[in-house]
Write a structure and sequence with these properties.
Protein-Tyrosine Phosphatase, Chain A, UDP-N-acetylmuramoyl-tripeptide-D-alanyl-D-alanine ligase activity, cytoplasm, Udp-n-acetylmuramoylalanyl-d-glutamate--2,6- Diaminopimelate Ligase, Chain: A, domain 1, 424 residues, UDP-N-acetylmuramoyl-L-alanine:D-glutamate ligase, alpha/beta, six-stranded mixed sheet, 34% helix
Length: 424
């Protein structure tokens, strides 16, 4: 079956599923295969559960005329999404960066949806599978799609841009994330800048943080750039007013009081304001959209539980995000502070030095009640409580009474430190 024919089929059944547990009626099931699973085995189940067709790449699972055999299911999914993108009228804003991608995406979507029919990447489905799935959610009514792009190695953003062909782009920052795959911070900068390269080659508009020296250097004299800044009159002026603990900011004599903590969320809000202004969203709508946004999914959530004031930032962590989270926690004017910090993953040969740097920062900031969880933190040179695993932490907490504390919980997704809430 050609991609053109498959796309016609998709237009008739415009829902794509990759998980038989979430099958919807009249959908198309793509039998993706990974290291630990083979989606081909579930093709029949998908059809029995309501899928109209199942796309497979192993002939032995051809169970009926509703199974369509292709050479490679993943490649077919990607080709279908690229074909669909080429035939839709929606404008696409691509978003990447080391930290803050998902929060920024949600803020941009909150602002733009005040005026336009939008779609945005769900959760953090931002890789070689997630981006195609996002593109296939674009309908004839969609006016703007905000597509988050993640990467852990060189060439990945370039590949995702080839599929999505963005009309606009924004990079949140360049930080110490996925150092193992990128080979160091220079690799991170080069990899994320693949978005810039794509947009510049097509003479597309780029949104930027005018106070970020790396972004300014990378874009140089490129004409089609629109920026924000706290002081540079070349760009749109937005200033931070307060961050104790929730940030408030000012633009065009308007104060915005957010539900976001940490100075690191200031630029995320600025990007949403800038893009809202570019797309002619009324000032009051921009303000209300940002003020209404409430972070969820373990990202800088404020939780009050049994007398504890908890900052739950356990969705992910890297050296850059860990550093700003600790500095923000230090500046919060509260007593009885406790840190629960989990290992930062995908650092490769940089793991030892980066975990030690975080421990040194904790010492410098004079935090006293500190729990370090994970193999990497356990190897650091420190006098803090070090535990090799979450199970070790769970045992340790059974003999500790915690009352009325201010708590920061942060670690990589694989640590799943949100489980600590069960002990509070």
């Amino acid at each position: 079956m050609t991609i053109d024919n498959l796309h016609n089929l998709f237009l008739e059944y415009p829902t794509v599923c990759t998980d038989t547990r979430k099958i919807k009626k009249n959908s198309i099931f793509f039998a993706l295969t990974g290291e630990n699973f083979n989606g081909n085995k579930f093709a029949l189940k998908a059809i029995e559960n309501g899928a109209e067709y199942a796309i497979i790449d192993e002939e032995e699972y051809m169970v009926s005329d509703k199974t369509i055999l292709v050479n490679n299911v993943l490649k077919t999914l990607q080709e279908l999404s690229e074909y669909h993108r080429n035939h839709c009228t929606a404008k696409i804003i691509a978003l990447t960066g080391s930290n803050g991608k998902t929060t920024t995406k949600e803020l941009i979507n909150s602002v733009l949806s005040k005026k336009y029919q939008t779609i945005a990447t769900e959760g953090n489905l931002n890789n070689h599978i997630g981006v195609p799935l996002t593109l296939l959610k674009i309908t004839p009514n969609t006016e703007i799609a905000i597509v988050e792009m993640g990467a852990n190695h060189l060439g990945e953003i370039e590949f995702l841009c080839k599929i999505a062909k963005p009309d606009y782009g924004y990079i949140t920052n360049f930080g110490k994330a996925h150092l193992e795959g990128f080979g160091g911070i220079e690799g991170v900068i080069k990899g994320k800048s693949e978005l810039y390269n794509h947009l510049i080659s097509g003479k597309k508009n780029i949104f930027l943080n005018g106070d970020d020296p790396i972004q300014k250097e990378k874009l140089g004299n490129y004409i089609k750039k629109i920026g924000f800044s706290a002081h540079n009159q070349k760009y749109y002026i937005i200033t931070l007013q307060d961050s104790s603990p929730f940030i408030s900011l000012q633009f065009e004599n308007t104060i915005v009081n957010t539900q976001l903590i940490g100075n690191y969320n200031f630029t995320n809000c600025c990007a949403a304001i800038l893009i809202g202004k570019y797309f002619n969203i009324p000032l009051n709508d921009i303000r209300s959209a940002i003020e209404e946004y409430n972070p969820k999914n373990n990202r800088s959530q404020i939780i009050n539980k049994n007398g504890h004031h908890v900052i739950l930032d356990a969705y992910n962590a890297n050296p850059s995000s860990m550093k700003v989270a600790l500095e923000n926690f230090y500046n919060i004017d509260r007593e009885n502070k406790i840190l629960f910090l989990g290992d930062m993953f995908e650092l490769g040969k940089y793991a030892e030095v980066e975990h030690q740097a975080i421990v040194d920062l904790i010492t410098k900031l004079k935090f006293e009640k500190v729990f370090l969880i994970g193999e990497n933190f356990h190897k650091t040179n420190s006098t803090f409580t070090k535990l090799k695993s979450y199970d070790d932490l769970r045992e340790a907490l059974k003999s500790i009474i915690l009352k009325n504390n201010t708590i920061l919980i942060k670690g990589s997704r694989g640590m799943a430190l949100e489980r600590i809430l069960d002990f509070l």
